[in-house]
Specification:
Layout lengths: L1 H15 L13 H22 L8 E3 L8 E6 L4 E6 L2 E7 L12 E4 L2 E7 L7 E7 L6 E4 L12 E3 L1 H10 L5 E5 L1
Parallel strand pairs: 2-10, 8-9
Antiparallel strand pairs: 1-4, 2-3, 3-4, 5-10, 6-7, 7-8
Helix pairs in contact: 1-2
């Protein structure tokens, strides 16, 4: 956990070199991608320390811990896992399914822009997107969906259904989402 605090402090230095953008904008610069990738690597180590294992496809691990601080989500594209933090404390981890070529999930630092308990895709045959949390203006979102444990979406981050419902309750518009390699 202390490693995460150090990495976030280091990323703050990196953030000083990231051009200022409105709070609703995604930051997909090289620096932002590096920061998110570093956060994903640290989150993976925190998962081993906190849970001792990784969740299987379609599953998640959640622990009820009291922790002060902002809620944020870290997504690791390489390990196909999403991590939920409250302050410096890892609260949960879930197996995910992200975008497959040619529609890969973007990397960088995002914010939740919109939340809807039930949304339907305007691009993909009215596909259901339960517990949708949109993170960019092009339709990329965190939402419940099919989760084979490997990239299989059109760019969204698909979450196990029960995890998506719990995550939806603890995040808000503006919650930071870091997506790294």
């Amino acid at each position: 956990m202390k490693k995460l605090a150090l990495a976030l402090a280091a990323s703050a230095l990196c953030a000083l070199s990231v051009p200022a953008a409105p709070a609703s904008a995604a930051v997909e610069t090289v620096e932002a991608r590096m920061t998110a990738t570093s956060a994903a690597a640290i989150a993976h180590q925190d998962m081993i320390e906190a849970f001792g294992k990784r969740p299987k496809p379609g599953r998640y691990l959640w622990r009820d811990v009291e922790a002060p601080g902002e809620t944020r989500v870290v997504v690791g594209l390489g390990d196909q896992l999403a991590y939920l933090y409250r302050g410096a404390e890892l609260v949960a981890v879930a197996a995910i399914s992200t975008g497959k070529a040619p529609k890969i999930t973007p990397m960088g630092i995002f914010n939740v822009l919109e939340k809807k308990p039930m949304h339907r895709s305007r691009k993909y045959d009215n596909a259901p997107m339960p517990f949708m949390q949109r993170i960019d203006q092009y339709g990329i979102a965190l939402h419940a969906g099919h989760n084979p444990g490997q990239p299989a979406s059109h760019g969204c981050v698909r979450l196990p259904s029960q995890f998506a419902a719990k995550l939806y309750k603890v995040t808000g518009v503006g919650t930071t989402v870091l997506i790294g390699a």
